[in-house]
Design goal:
301 residues, 56% helix, two-stranded antiparallel sheet, 5 strands, mainly alpha, 3-stranded antiparallel sheet, disordered N terminus
Length: 301
């Protein structure tokens, strides 16, 4: 369940790097520069991999619960009014943001609020002609029955995955990219807000590791940065966030492979450790920049 795309946001539990990893110790990224030619030459498989490497809001909520972080209604993008969202750009972006909130709410079993979010998701999805990928009545019923949490989470995430695949395969890749961006920025916002109120070394490291996935997200955005004022503003925002990560250093040390039992057989797993070097000032800047960008994006058109 936790490899499913989009409901789907920050790589907080597992980081996947688009570059080939070397044996021994290495630092990511070695080069912060992202060329437009590199972005435009991304294959459909590479784009799909980036999408699948975004951690789901379920993973994020699991991490927050593991750290005993209390649920907060204040974190939600409650100001989004689906009836006042006018452009496809904003609809796709906010569909991703609300998808992240839905995963957060469902994991904390806040069913009454999740039904309100679900109504907004339905409106945005139907406006983008992807509403048929959601079984809204089933999701609504499952939301009212806490014993079906696993089924609810799976169906919700599977719906977003199908929407992403449909958009990418029907030459609407820009909307898929926006939905992915929406999921990521909301997940980033959730974790940075918790970290600002409940400092924790694990959260700090997960936030620092976002330098990696942010690099990939900029690759997704780059081909569209000149596609209109909305895209240009979004690219400017994400480059500003990237600048706040510029001096964060992530060092990986590759370990020896280990064999683990899975589904009755042995699976070889590669092990590695990572060290995130990030000052308090850098963390504070990342939290502040994330909040400014996210709050700007949830405003109605």
């Amino acid at each position: 369940m936790k490899k499913i795309l989009l409901i789907c946001c920050i790589i907080f539990l597992a980081i996947a790097c688009k570059n080939t990893r070397k044996q021994g110790q290495y630092v990511f990224p070695e080069d912060d520069f992202i060329s437009l030619s590199e972005a435009e030459s991304l294959s459909p498989e590479a784009i799909a991999d980036i999408a699948k490497n975004i951690a789901s809001p379920v993973e994020i909520a699991n991490l927050l619960q593991m750290l005993d972080a209390p649920f907060s209604q204040e974190y939600l993008a409650s100001s989004i009014d689906a009836n006042r969202v006018n452009t496809n750009f904003s609809k796709a972006l906010k569909l991703g943001i609300l998808g992240a909130d839905l995963g957060y709410l469902n994991m904390y079993e806040k069913t009454s609020t999740s039904l309100d979010i679900l109504a907004s998701i339905r409106k945005l999805a139907e406006d983008l002609s992807v509403g048929h990928f959601f079984d809204f009545e089933l999701i609504r019923r499952l939301s009212q029955n806490r014993s079906n949490l696993d089924s609810l989470l799976f169906i919700s995430m599977d719906s977003y995955e199908k929407v992403d695949e449909y958009l990418r395969s029907n030459e609407r890749g820009q909307l898929s990219a926006l939905m992915i961006i929406g999921v990521w920025i909301e997940g980033q916002y959730l974790v940075t807000q918790v970290a600002s109120k409940f400092p924790d070394d694990m959260l700090r490291d997960r936030i620092g590791e976002q330098k990696i996935i942010l690099n990939d997200l900029l690759l997704l955005l780059a081909p569209y940065c000149n596609a209109g004022q909305e895209f240009k503003a979004l690219c400017d925002d994400f480059n500003e966030l990237r600048n706040s990560y510029r001096d964060v250093r992530i060092t990986y040390t590759q370990g020896d492979p280990i064999a683990i039992e899975k589904d009755g057989g042995l699976v070889i797993m590669q092990t590695e450790t990572s060290v995130v070097e990030m000052t308090e000032e850098q963390l504070a800047n990342i939290i502040k920049t994330t909040s400014i960008i996210r709050n700007r994006l949830i405003l109605s058109d």
